[in-house]
Amino acid sequence: MTDSFKLLFVCMGNICRSPAAEGVMRHLVTQASLDSQIQIDSAGTGGWHSGARADHRMRAAATARGYDLTSMARQVKDTDLEEFDLVVIMDDQNRRDLRAFDRERQHDAKVRFLCEFCTQRTEKEVPDPYYGGQQGFENVLDLLEDGCSGLLKHVQNQLKPTC
């Protein structure tokens, strides 16, 4: 058990899936009054969009559901795998790309697929909605809501109870 928990969401460019996961998770963590115990961030395996806001279509879809996507895109750093307690990826390509940051695979155990935490959906990966239509963004948010709910329960089980 731990007093605090650091959570990193990772996708390819950090403008669709991972910032949306960060926004959904922040919302759930705030609702659970765990803001002081759970730190949340997101990053991309590539740095093409560093400094950019989330894709406007993802922001619009998220806003319609009550989520505020305020993070700015950044690329994964070498130190992220060491610093975060859990690194949550969207697809298998993210896992392969992360291995460039962990060549000895010291941190494989803390890299998990978001869909592992889903309780309602059966998908194995969160698809990239970037080149699809609006329904792709809605589908991603459905998956993120399910996965982040299960993930929050997982993280809560890692935290020491507060008095």
Task: For the structure shown, list the relevant keywords.
163 residues; alpha/beta; Rossmann fold; 4-stranded parallel beta sheet; 37% helix; 13% strand; globular
Strand order of the largest sheet: 2-1-3-4
Overall residue-averaged pLDDT value: 96
CATH architecture: 3-Layer(aba) Sandwich
Into which percent range does the helicity of residues fall?
25-40%
Task: Give the full name of the CATH homologous superfamily.
Answer: Response regulator
Classify the secondary structure makeup into a structural class: alpha/beta
Largest sheet: 4 strands, parallel
Low-confidence stretches: none
Q: Quickly count the domains.
A: 1
Order of helices and strands: EHEHHEHEH
Rounded to an integer, what's the Rg over CA atoms? 15 Å
In the CATH scheme, what's the topology name?
A: Rossmann fold
In one word, what is the shape? Answer: globular
Give the CA-CA distance, first to last residue.
15 Å
* Estimated share of beta-strand residues: 5-15%
Q: How would you sum up this structure in a few lines?
A:
With 163 residues, this protein is an alpha/beta fold. The protein has 5 helices and 4 strands; from the N terminus they run E-H-E-H-H-E-H-E-H.
